[in-house]
Amino acid sequence: MAPKGSAGKEKAAPEEEEEILQAVVLADSFNNRFKPLTLSKPRCLLPVCNATLLDWTFESLALAGVQEIFVICRSHAKQIKSTIAESKWSQPSSGIKIVPIITAKESFSAGDAMRDIYTHGFIKSDFVLVAGDLVSNVRIDEVVRAHKERRRKNRDAIMTMVIKEAGAVHRSRPRGETSIFVLDSNTHECLHYEPVQGYPPLAHASVPREILTEHSELEIRNDFIDCNIDVCSLEVPSLFQDNFDYQDIRRDFVHGVLTSDLLMKNIYCHVITDGYAARVKDTRSYASVSKDILARWTFPLVPDDNHPGSASTSYEHARGNKYFSLSSPPQLARTSHVGPLTQLGPDTSIAADARVTRSVIGAHCFLGPGATVTDSNLWDAVRVEAGCVIESSVLGKGVTVLRGSRIERGCLIADGVVIGPEARLKKLTRVSVRRGTVEEDEEDEDEDSELEHVEASQTSEIRASLGSESNGLVWPDDSVDEDEDEDETHSRLNQRLLRIGDNASDLDISDAGSVTSSSDSDADSDADDGTLSMNGVLGLQLSSSATSLPSESAVAELADAQAQREFQAEVSASLARAFAEGHSVDNAAVELKTLRMASNVPLRRVREAVVAGVVDLIPLVPDAPAQQRAEIARVVGRWGQLIDSIGGIDAVETVAVLQEHCSQSPRLALFGQVLAALYQHDVVEEDDIRAWHALTASRGSSEVATAENMRKCWVVGARMIKQFEEQDDDSEDEEDKDEEDESESEEESS
Domain W2 spans what residues (predicted)? Predict the structure, then answer.
């Protein structure tokens, strides 16, 4: 008979082997932000860089070691199920088991989906919860290990949320949807959570007083990107089942658990400073995530390596982050132009004098002579005829844009639409096909009432704007209705911050430099309900000029201002030591991170200090341009990478900080040369410079004393962008010349 100890070990081993990492993917979006693009397919099957969002999500989970995935779907469920069955993920070699779970038609929220998960009972242990529009290279398995280790010590730790540090102007940071997180500095337990809309701007936030009394060290953060990656215990679905008023995971569940006096459960945050994770939650993030993939922020998930699309489709990576299909190379006319951050799918043709820049072009597309496509996404089989212009828009599968048409920024054109000829679509126009002009699927009847409303709104003027051969319907815009109440109006206006091509410049959103003071009535109210007021907290986090956290008294304001000054002095001293003693960049970064954690200041403050330190380290060499350039190259080459090493990489914010510092220092004349050096050393990229240049703030405000100098920097940036375009043209000309020389050599040899 075997010893008891051996028998116990033999029984325990299979249990360990059976515990596999499971993930739940919520395939439904539960909103209409992509309509009319989602009339014929769900959001999770929309293509991003020529692969479906669901494929990117599966690839992200596979990279993290997930072995079993349950896909919860309601809308277009059969389409999702068949797509999975026909994909590479259903092959035995994929190493992942994917199980689609079709939920009831009555599921209209994430909370309903979680209750369905509880009812089905297929989850056996702690699991990863994500949406079907996630793109990530984060090692989620490491987060799971940390979560399980925490659970061994505290069984009430039911969830770990993955959040990422990012600058205020990071293009993946949603402008219309941010959050305030209050964390325990030592354990990263989430003590308070508050969702924040971009419009109307939040001037007042409150933290329960008991949090301040029970925790000696807190972090109040508004500089996080919520990755919407959660590691959940088995208790999470059951809590949704017990609380039918939980609909949204963040606004209802997280907020409900943290404010409940009965549940006594804990939620933690896992803060990442490296890696990439973002959701395609709206058309603005659709555009930004596409650019992030092309800019290789998602490596190793990039088009030329680990592209999650069809196994038969592969891409070549060229200079300027251009990607060309290898399986069926695109046909490029000699005088066509392909700019940076561009992807061309299989069997695509670009005619003479056509230009495409910072865009994704699908398979079997055609761009006619003289056509221009900028900052746009064209899905498969799109045809753009001669002289057409498309800017910052999304065109669905099989769209045809007839000659001489112009599509302004922010337009969404659904599958099968014909536009033109000589059409003029104003910005933010949404167009779908008329009923009966394309084959309808089984779910079209659910959209009939909405399409009837759209059809009823058509006028002769609208039809004329689409062109004489169009089969389209223009959807009503999101203008404010006089009959709406204030909340509905604010919600509608906030949606503008989530749309591609809409800079919302006419909206009065949070002023990065403003900080509001508490009124006496606010203070009295706070004392009554046991909360501490934080007026203007968003202004603090997003501002480079705000220097103190507004509080209940002038004494607290002075104390915070003093703390800010002390932090700046410590950072300056740390940088001075690093520069003087020749520390490594890594060691200097570690010291700065430690200072930041001890002082609890926004990441931007550290970035400002580092940029200022590096720029001020450059010796000024009057009347010696060559020597001055050499000094700039030497300093930036030695210390430029420190800007990224402090964490929360945001190159657009880096350029903005450089502009602000140079505009108020004697080194104004060095702005262009320093920016060029940062570009040469890969601290910023061409697309980052373009994104900074497009910001309204980069032009300088008349209310700021340094406005004229800010404008000078902006003009320098415009010249640099022009040089980029000229270099691209020269590169194309050289390639054409090389091709001509090769053909001439072949003719001579024959």
Answer: 561-734
